[in-house]
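Title: Comparing notes on inverse folding

I've been comparing how different people in this forum approach sequence design from structure. To keep things fair, I'm posting one structure and asking everyone to reply with a full sequence. Here's the target:
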């Protein structure tokens, strides 16, 4: 017996996809994101992470912290080159606290605990401080 996969919006998912709904409801609202993390997955940055799927790893941490849905939802998405290859692997965070935009460099060196601290700061409306991630942030 096949179980139907349901995405975070509560829609049944097309087989072989992670979140694509079987039936599109154009009237369903767009989900709110407290913050969005854009993690570079282009060639150079991907090599820096040793071939690990960093976005998938970060999504698992977000789920573990209970931040994958609800008012404190954090979205992690892959993107291609952000033009900062010398700082690989880079990430950009856009948050609604108040319009916080932060660039992170060398994220392939971040531990899961460092990412947890970053995500919890975002969820709790705390500004990400340079000291929080050992001077790995630049503006």
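Reply #1:
Here's my take.
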């Amino acid at each position: 017996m096949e179980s139907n996969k349901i995405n975070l919006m509560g829609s049944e998912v097309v087989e072989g996809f992670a979140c694509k709904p079987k039936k599109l409801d154009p009237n369903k609202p767009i989900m709110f994101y407290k913050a969005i993390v854009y993690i570079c997955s282009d060639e150079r940055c991907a090599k820096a992470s040793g071939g690990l799927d960093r976005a998938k790893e970060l999504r698992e941490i977000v789920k573990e912290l209970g931040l994958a849905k609800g008012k404190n939802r954090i979205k992690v998405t892959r993107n291609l080159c952000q033009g900062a290859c010398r700082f690989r692997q880079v990430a950009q965070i856009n948050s609604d606290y108040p319009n916080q935009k932060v660039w992170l460099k060398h994220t392939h060196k971040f531990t899961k605990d460092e990412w947890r601290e970053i995500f919890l700061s975002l969820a709790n409306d705390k500004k990400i401080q340079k000291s929080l991630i050992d001077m790995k942030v630049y503006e």
